[in-house]
Amino acid sequence: MLRIGTMNDTNTTYDTAVRDADFDDFADSATAVTSDASDADEIATTLAQWWQTNARDLPWRFGRTTPWGVLVSEVMSQQTQMGRVVPYWTAWMDRWPDAAALADAPKSDVITAWGRLGYPRRALRLQECAHVIAYDYADELPHTYDELLALPGIGDYTASAVLSFAFGERIAVVDTNIRRVLSRAFVGVESLGGSASPAERALAKRLLPDDDSAKCRRFDRPSVVWNQAVMELGATVCTAKSPLCEACPIAGKCAFLRNGRPGLGQRRTRPRQRFQGTDRQVRGLVLNALRGLPDGETVLDRKSVERLWKDHVQLDKCIASLDEDGLIEILPGGGVRLPV
């Protein structure tokens, strides 16, 4: 049986644990959690078994890549579905298998390889990160949370995910999917999105299984399996708008389902902005045109640029923003190219 860390040190219920964590959003709710620690152990065991048979076979999982490969997968997967990431990740790792290989690569190659993953500034930040790893850490990913967090473009989630998934460290990983599953299963209410609250982080830490001194591969350690299984459940079963409760392995222990799924799909954040006609679309058109130039050509002349978008005021604003972000260079005469 898997042991849940802090919760097994006491005989409190989750309702008490949530209040102790100053879970302001939930403590006064009539639907507060009543599951005890034995339920948490059972859920952890059930999810570990579910993970072994249902986890998607992604190339950076199960110890099949380096810590650098894990980091690349996490950066690419931010706001991008993992299924879309696989071909880009595979090509990227073939070309730049370690930080040193990426560090001094031409920026134009880096932006082109990023393709249609979206938010292309991530590509340049990843290259900045690679430069620090290559030259300050002798091409080895640092092993501490503070050192990872200090790398360019690396935030709390990515630092925690790398520590857990790449190094097998016992640390709570908190992303949108994990927050949703924990809130629903253990608290019985909907997770409303937005930034993770201190209370949500405290709950994630309380539920993290102990690793003891388990003699197993780092990716098989209980805390690592827990982080990945909960995240996978949120991505494939316990989804935001249409959860597949009938297929959920922990449905029988889920407080949210037991409470009648109150507020299903409610969000704290604003609705997602439409893409058509936005600056994001225009920026993408410019970058895609540059990536698609014939071999040997590197410059998109002004006339070709103007044909990309009818509203030239918006077009020029987007070109200026791409230049400011370091994603393109504006040439005399109004032509543009990827940075060299």
Summarize the structure in words.
GO terms for molecular function: 4 iron, 4 sulfur cluster binding; 8-oxo-7,8-dihydroguanine DNA N-glycosylase activity; adenine/guanine mispair binding; metal ion binding; oxidized purine DNA binding; purine-specific mismatch base pair DNA N-glycosylase activity. It is an enzyme of class 3 (hydrolase). InterPro entries: DNA_glycosylase, Endonuclease3_FeS-loop_motif, Endouclease-III_FeS-bd_BS, HhH-GPD_domain, HhH_base_excis_C, HhH_motif, MIG/MutY. Belongs to the Nth/MutY family. The chain is mainly α and 340 residues long. The protein folds into three domains: 6-58 and 171-258, Orthogonal Bundle (Endonuclease Iii, domain 2); 67-165, Orthogonal Bundle (Endonuclease III, domain 1); 279-337, Arc Repressor Mutant, subunit A. Helices cover 50% and strands 2% of the residues. It has 17 helices and three strands. The chain has helices at 14-20, 24-27, 37-54, 67-77, 82-95, 99-103, 107-114, 121-136, 145-149, 156-165, 176-187, 198-207, 222-236, 255-258, 279-291, 302-306, 312-324, and strands spanning 299-300, 329-330, 336-337. A three-stranded antiparallel sheet has the order 1-3-2. Strand 2 and strand 3 (336-337) form a beta hairpin. It is globular.
Strand arrangement across the biggest beta sheet:
1-3-2
What is the typical, i.e. mean, pLDDT?
88
Strand segment count: 3
Q: CATH homologous superfamily of the largest domain - what is it? A: Helix-hairpin-Helix base-excision DNA repair enzymes (C-terminal)
Q: Supply Rg.
A: 23 Å
User: How many domains, in number, for the residues?
Assistant: 3
Predict the CATH topology of the largest domain.
Endonuclease Iii, domain 2
Protein name: Adenine DNA glycosylase
InterPro entries: DNA_glycosylase, Endonuclease3_FeS-loop_motif, Endouclease-III_FeS-bd_BS, HhH-GPD_domain, HhH_base_excis_C, HhH_motif, MIG/MutY
EC number: 3.2.2.31
Cofactor: [4Fe-4S] cluster
